[in-house]
Amino acid sequence: MPRPKILLFFLAAFFAIALMVISPCSPCLAEQSDTAGEEPGEAVSTQEDIPAKEKESAIRRSERKERRIGDGVLSLSTHRQNYFLPFTYNSNPNRDTYGDAGENKPGNIEVKFQLSFKVLLWEKIFWDRGDLFFGYTQLSFWQLYDKKLSSPFRETNYEPEVFFKFDTDFNVLGLTNRFITFGFNHESNGKSGDLSRSWNRIFAVIAADHGNFAIALKPWYRIPEDKDDDDNRDIEKYMGYGELFGAYRWKGNVFSFLFRNNLRQNNRGAVELGWSYPITTNLRLYAQYFNGYGESLVDYDHSVNRIGFGVMLNDWL
Length: 317
Prior knowledge:
Layout: H1 4-22, E1 29-31, E2 42-44, H2 58-65, E3 68-69, E4 76-78, E5 82-90, E6 109-125, E7 130-142, E8 153-172, E9 175-188, E10 198-210, E11 213-222, H3 236-239, E12 242-250, E13 253-261, E14 269-278, E15 284-292, E16 304-314
Antiparallel strand pairs: 1-2, 3-4, 4-6, 5-6, 5-16, 6-7, 7-8, 8-9, 9-10, 10-11, 11-12, 12-13, 13-14, 14-15, 15-16
């Protein structure tokens, strides 16, 4: 196990950089009243600035809470969850992929973290209801505790995307649809040889909410590749054609979920469950459980069973 000072130094450095990049550029009013619909210890907008019909909207409230630098075009804000899990345990690590040499195979315990942001490229298009964004998400798995191999980064997935986001406001099955997104997504792990993984997708996101509950459906279509260039040609058999994710906020707690299924007779899928709770204005406790296929690209065809604990900067709600 590494000396505690090494882990504490990295944790402090990671969040110092992340907060400089995606924390608010001006002070916000921190409210403590749950009766007003706000979470204790979080930076939020004043209630006077919130339209009456949107006070109970989970998605609109989440959009107002986004940590942002600047206003208008080229402003930078959070995108997906940003978190750091210094301890995760995987009971079924993917050792077969890394060759026959046992000393090169990953251990059960590793660090997992994600950094995600988006940049506004064009705003108020299509009757002032649409915006164009560039998004970037990076998910890393770090074998910090493996001193025999000098603590290598086992896998990092890089995911740039470009997407249109359209604000909506109509009711479906008791939920209010808040936005629809259309975009192009590339994901790869930057490796070569037998460990190389990548794919390109066209995707959409349909998001709705009711009170403190929000849910979103994300279908996608994989853009075909030449067989000679395709290093994961059967990825859809494991990752399927979309995912369902959502969250519920209750007294400062946020409970989140993500489900995938390949919708085939040979059934494969994945589930991710999360819980977070604010401990400071910019930081939340976070616990995550993942079971199934596709946690990372190198593990797209390997079933993972992982639980992790740490902190996060922003949750879905």
